Amino acid sequence: MSFDWVTFGFQIVNVLLLLAILRYFLFRPVANVIARRQAETDAALEAVEKAKAEAKAATQKAQAEADATAAARQDVLDQARKDAEAERLALLEKAHAEAEKIVSDGHAAHERNIHENKAQQMARVRDLAAAIAERALTAQPQDVGSYLSRLVASLQKMPPTERGALLKGGNLTLMSAAPLSDSDLALVKSALAPFEINLEFSIAPQLIAGLELQSDSGAIRNSLAHDLEQITEAMRDD
Fold this sequence. Notes:
Blueprint: H1 5-139, H2 144-157, H3 160-168, E1 173-176, H4 182-192, E2 200-203, E3 211-215, E4 218-220, H5 224-237
Parallel strand pairs: 1-2
Antiparallel strand pairs: 1-3, 3-4
Helix pairs in contact: 1-5, 2-4
């Protein structure tokens, strides 16, 4: 088999022509398109970077303005707090001064009232004591027998159930302001005999005068001390 150089030469020429045609009609337009797209991409990237820079600058500016606003607001708040505290202290000082004046005036008025009312109070006490003594001496019995009569009358006026509870209660005791003589003791036992009770006797000087009957279930008050208490209460209410 022999090699045909002529045919080989034509094939080489065809390849070169094909490459020239492809370069002119395909590779160059494609390269131009690629270059244009690359330029567009570079421009877009540049625009993006510029936008980022502008956004960052705007953010920094906004942050600076916000910081300045916050600082100014804090200054206003601090000044308002200082003004409010100063006003509060001034009001407190004024209130303290007024309170001290009121207390001082009150003490002075109180002292005047004490001096003005002292004589009136003493007169009222003297009149009250005289009235209590007069009523008590007028209403009081003069001997043991009279007190005993009042005690018996009180027992007779009591409802049976209440009287029974009193007389049957534990520690039934007849209390007298002073020791009873034998004759007074006999008189007491005779007057209380109808009630069929066993009595204990006790001395209670705080009664001043009189006879009182008491047990664990109740008591009959029948003394000068009790009358004075009632008269004092009545006159206090009046």
